[in-house]
């Protein structure tokens, strides 16, 4: 059954994470408190930023043989009863967190060290902050919220952790992370090509 074929009724039946993950991958969506929330497909700008960040993280992870980086709306369950399954734009998970250095089937578990969310024109900043809180509450160490606005001077990456106030890294600055030893990148590298 596709998302479009789900029955509509005045009272929406809540879906479990297992039911949600069994649906075909047709359209970007998330499960929020048991209810499917459809999303717009990512824009080319969004895709390029995520590709840039995943490339940088993958290169660093392979150089240090420390873990795996990925993205593309990867399923990550953040709440239960009612279930919430988010589509993470990007992530890094260390081999220390993975049994046998292999990603499991299904949603990304255990929680990765790092999650990345890139703001789309249809997102409010508060939507991204809500996701960041959910990720941190399930054991993610750090969340990068990325603002890829049209004006280069306004672009930034904001790092969120449970143990400190957010840190905003602007164009021309070097982003470092206590979760990623020896990782560093100039913020502009995330926006290369846009």
Topology:
Elements: H1 17-21, E1 29-32, E2 35-38, H2 44-64, E3 67-79, E4 84-94, E5 114-118, H3 125-137, E6 142-147, E7 156-161, E8 164-170, E9 174-176, E10 184-186
Parallel strand pairs: 5-6
Antiparallel strand pairs: 1-2, 3-4, 4-5, 6-7, 7-8, 9-10
Describe the 3D structure.
The chain has helices spanning 17-21, 44-64, 125-137; strands at residues 29-32, 35-38, 67-79, 84-94, 114-118, 142-147, 156-161, 164-170, 174-176, 184-186. With 194 residues, the chain is of the alpha+beta class. It has two domains: 3-37, no CATH class; 42-191, tt1808, chain A (Alpha-Beta Complex), CATH 3.90.1570.10. Strands 3-4-5-6-7-8 form a six-stranded mixed sheet, sandwiched between helices. Strands 1-2 form a two-stranded antiparallel ribbon. It starts with 16 loop residues before the first helix and ends in an 8-residue tail after the last strand. The relative contact order is 0.14. The mean pLDDT is 87.
């Amino acid at each position: 059954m596709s998302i479009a074929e789900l029955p509509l009724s005045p009272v929406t039946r809540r879906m479990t994470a297992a039911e949600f993950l069994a649906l075909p991958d047709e359209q970007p969506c998330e499960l929020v408190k048991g209810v499917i929330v459809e999303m717009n497909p990512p824009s080319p700008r969004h895709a390029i930023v995520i590709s840039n960040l995943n490339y940088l993280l993958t290169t660093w992870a392979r150089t240090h043989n420390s873990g795996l980086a990925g993205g593309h709306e990867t399923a990550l369950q953040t709440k239960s009863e009612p279930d919430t399954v988010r589509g993470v734009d990007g992530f890094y998970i260390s081999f220390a967190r993975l049994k046998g250095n292999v990603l499991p089937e299904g949603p990304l578990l255990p929680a990765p060290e790092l999650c990345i969310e890139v703001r789309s024109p249809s997102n409010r900043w508060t939507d991204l902050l809500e996701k960041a809180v959910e990720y941190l509450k399930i054991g993610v160490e750090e969340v990068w919220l990325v603002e890829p606005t049209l004006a280069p001077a306004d672009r930034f990456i904001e790092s969120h952790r449970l143990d400190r106030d957010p840190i905003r890294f602007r164009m021309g600055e070097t982003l470092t992370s206590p979760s990623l030893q020896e990782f560093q990148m100039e913020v502009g590298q995330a926006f290369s090509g846009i």
